[in-house]
Amino acid sequence: MTSSDVSSARSSRSQRNATRTPEHRDPRPSSRGRSRLSVGLIVFFGSLLGTLLGVAADLADAADTVDRLRRLTYPELCIAGSNTILGDGLALAHEWSDAFEASHNVRVRIEGVGSVRGVENAIHGECVHVLAMSEPMTDTQYIGLTTNGVTLQCAAEIGFDVIAFVTHSTNPLAALNARDLRGILVGATRNWDEVGGADLPIRIYARPGSGTTDIVLQKAARYRDANIFDDQYFPPNSGYMSCESNGDCLNQTLSTPGSLYWVSTAWMRTQPEEYIRVLPILQGDERAIDPLREDVDLNEYFTPMIRPLYFYVVNTQGMSAETAALARQFLTYVRSVQGQEILEKYHFYTFFNPPRELTIELPPGFEPDASGLRPVCVGA
Question: Which of 260, 269, 286, 289 is the least crowded, having the fewest Cβ atoms under 10 Å away?
């Protein structure tokens, strides 16, 4: 090829390049351009997603706020009384209240203040619509309510609880008969060696005014003066030491040789089992029964330590018809299959299958009729 041919070829390429239009160029961006585009898209969509999540969170917060404000307009239903039922670290009552609130326009307030205190609160006009008690209402309590204008709309057992005795881990006794237990509780027996145990003074821990303590003093000790209104709450000359709560009482028992305490087995199951030393009570020559077993037959257990749990729907001055109806409905729900399933979940026993020898004690007006059926609510 001559120099003139080379020059001619170069001239032709230059002309082609000069006349090439933009659409003839490679439309693909460079790798650097693609990278900038990807980062931009990621930033954009990330910002968009964050904005959407923020809006969703704001909407959820707003909906929750609206729901809370709406609920403030609902009537309040006050459930007060027994710590065994309403408190003591169990979520039993709150499961009932959550389920009931989900199907009724109501705000349920739970106050586990103790059976005795619950009655006193109702007498003094505090917010009590359903009174929970872990022992029968006494004549003194009933008179105190009625003389202060508080009437009972409904009264019924909602289930059963088992009380067990616990002692220090070093106590060598395998079981204790009911006769010896009574001697200890009334102060006639003051040392464990008098009932076949070690030479140690008996130290009894108890919570004054609790329904559990009342049941033990009345049923096991047969100390009939066990009433918060009496000056002498514990038997005279007995070795009782007061403690503030089940947790406090158990801690004292576990750390004190020669100690004795009693507590609901439903609460006891919330504690580490390796720390619990149950002292079975025998009524005769039967085998000792561990009340923490899952297959306990209530008909074989120490009968005085099986207690019905009661709900009373009270009618106070100024109580609206709507609130009174809700209180009755709450009792009905707790006694339903759904309510009893929750009760069993927390290791209580349903009222559907009562022990044969147990008596249900209810206030005047709730006696069984000629056919043997008892009314749950009256005048409703």
Answer: 286
> Which among 105, 72, 19, 48 is positioned nearest to 326, based on CA atoms?
105
What is the end-to-end Cα distance of the chain in Å, rounded? 121
Tens of pLDDT along 59-103? 656 545 545 565 678 999 999 999 999 987 899 999 999 999 999
pLDDT per position as a tens digit, 299-319: 989 999 999 999 999 998 889
Phi/psi at 2 (5° precision)? -85, 165
CATH match of 76-159+307-345 with 3.40.190.10:
yes
Query: Per residue in 242-263, is it b (16+ CB within 10 Å) or e — as a string?
Result: ebeebeebbebbbebebbbbbb
Closest CA to 248 of 232, 259, 237, 238: 259
H or E element that contains 282: strand 281-282
